[in-house]
Structure prediction request, 469 residues.
Amino acid sequence: MVVTKCTSFERLTNAKLFLLLAFFISGLHAAVLPEDRSDAMYHSYEGGGMKIDGPSILIRKSLFDKVSVSANYYIDNVSAASIDVLANASPYTEKRTEYSLGADYLINKTTLSTSYTNSTENDYEANTAYFGVSQDFFGDLSTLSIGYSKGWDLVGNSTDASFEEEANRQNYKINWTQIVTKNMIMSAGLETVTDQGYLNNPYRVVRFWRVENGVQTIGKKTEVYPETRTSTAFSLSAKYYLPYRAAIKLEGRTFSDTWDIKATNYEVAYIHPLNDHWHFEGKVRTYKQSQARFYNDLFESENFQNFMARDKEMSDHSNISYGVGAVYQHELADGGFFKKFTVNLYVDYFQFDYNNFRNELASRDDPGLLGNEPLYSFDATVTRFFFSVWY
Amino acid sequence: MSQYKYLFKSGLVFLLGLTLSACAIEPWVKPYERDNLADPIMSFSKDPVSLNYMHHVYQAREGARGAEGGGGGGCGCN
Prediction:
């Protein structure tokens, strides 16, 4: 029999450590509430046969200089004809509605934050509760934020009313923001996410070789994923104020999980104000990941292994995106309720390239290509147009 | 205990120790030297509604997640 000795350190639960840290930092220096503002945004994603757009409305207001409350209403109108849909189903439309309520509370010079989010689709419901604490210290040179969220989802299937599964997750976040010099600020973030439950998409299928009447052909069956997943991501960001009033941002992130996915992404952005009213932004972002260990574009047989996935987001792939943005800002006269407003337009262009996810539609016209179709790639355009007002 | 939980707890304990020593450190960038840092173009999260949306786009199209700030909610990924 193997006996594992548990140290006192190991017996400290994450929740106890979280509360302990929250207690100690609550006695330090001042924090500020988020600004009072409202935003109305139209967002659009178009590419790879998908069109997803809709509004997002965010309202935030402080009360008695102690509490700031916020509410967000968000819609995704989905028109889906992606490669997965075209290969295995029929194009469809659906709508996702998301509501969030949040509150930030200044107590003993510490900001405590909490929020609740509910997202519903015709076949999926997601709930998330969040609690966090944030504090400035080292003479306000540093800001430490820690957060915990718990999510509980119900997974359905629009073609099977009896199908109902659960998926639960927990997120632990730590973020440290540091003023380095009078022109430079840095931020480091660490986040661990654990999932448990039904983690795959009930509609997505894997494909595998099979022999039918002596002819080798392709069979399909629903994906099977492990019921647990734990991931850790670490990010490092820096912003530098250039001598002529402009800023440059550098960001990198590394990611790994228990499904053997490893990913990195890097971003560089440049922000250039033109005068008191305009500023412009440009950015480049790259992303690259390895595949999950149970991913395969085409399995050798129906029961080749316990867990089988063909989600292209689980495959070995990369993307690069280029973004531009323009913001018009106008300060309003003193004494009025509204202080200023901005009109913002951002457009990002993405190119996605998959290294072991093939375009199976190609072999419909030419069965000789089965298993050897060209690798899949697509491009997408993401647009954000929003109006913000401060009061 | 998994390496992830160990890493998380180690990070919390490290930050707890650092926090307790915070009062002894003098700020090397004085408040009157922070004009440039207070410029909105230096904010990491200037527009939360826009930032959260981009996180949602990344999470829907990429296998990685976490350490990117706010966000959350369902999918609409197919």
Observations:
- The CA atoms of residues 210 and 217 of chain A lie 5 Å apart.
